């Protein structure tokens, strides 16, 4: 499907904002200008759902989740940032591995299988994009992913 990514992303965020049970503030840095991307909407919805669920799960009450999108030279870059417990430096790369969870005590109390980000990575790669994380233990985590989009000759949106 070809969708305006900004609208598509906002709708997913709306769904979480309406149903969230935690007191977490959502901050959006998403342009009003349409940004057309070809993607499998079911799969990318699953990716974003998992990233937002994680951000909510690992955020404290009173925290925030920040959402951003930038588009440059045929690459759309999405970021979802939280100010939660974070991930120790030596483990950041491994969160995209199957069944990997940062620590078992944390995993037990939080539920889940540890597959969410491994599946997300496969889906982003299948779309020609990349996904990575930056995190500081005790301060928060940011997940980034990219998706390519088509520019016409003038470098304008199609
Ligand atoms: P599932 O998504 O299958 O329900 P999960 O959320 O534990 O389970 P992933 O989404 O793959 O699995 O995440 C892997 C691990 O990475 C998590 O168990 C958690 O330890 C860590 N993690 C992911 N996102 C965050 C985040 N925003 N803040 C802190 N830790 C995180
Ligand atoms: Mg998850």
Automatic annotation (TrEMBL):
<feature type="domain" description="Histidine kinase">
    <location>
        <begin position="1"/>
        <end position="151"/>
    </location>
</feature>
<protein>
    <recommendedName>
        <fullName>histidine kinase</fullName>
    </recommendedName>
</protein>
């Amino acid at each position: 499907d070809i969708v305006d990514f900004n609208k598509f992303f906002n709708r997913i965020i709306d769904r979480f904002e309406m149903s969230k049970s935690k007191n977490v503030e959502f901050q959006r840095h998403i342009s009003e200008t349409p940004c057309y991307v070809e993607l499998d909407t079911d799969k990318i919805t699953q990716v974003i759902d998992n990233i937002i669920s994680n951000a909510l799960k690992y955020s404290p009450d009173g925290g925030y989740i920040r959402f951003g999108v930038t588009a440059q030279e045929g690459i759309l870059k999405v970021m979802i940032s939280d100010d939660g417990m974070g991930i120790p430096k030596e483990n950041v790369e491994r969160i995209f591995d199957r069944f990997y969870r940062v620590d078992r005590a944390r995993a037990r109390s939080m539920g889940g299988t540890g597959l969410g980000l491994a599946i997300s990575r496969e889906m982003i790669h299948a779309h020609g994009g990349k996904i990575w994380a930056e995190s500081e233990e005790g301060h928060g985590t940011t997940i980034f992913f990219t998706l390519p989009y088509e520019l016409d000759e003038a470098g304008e949106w199609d």
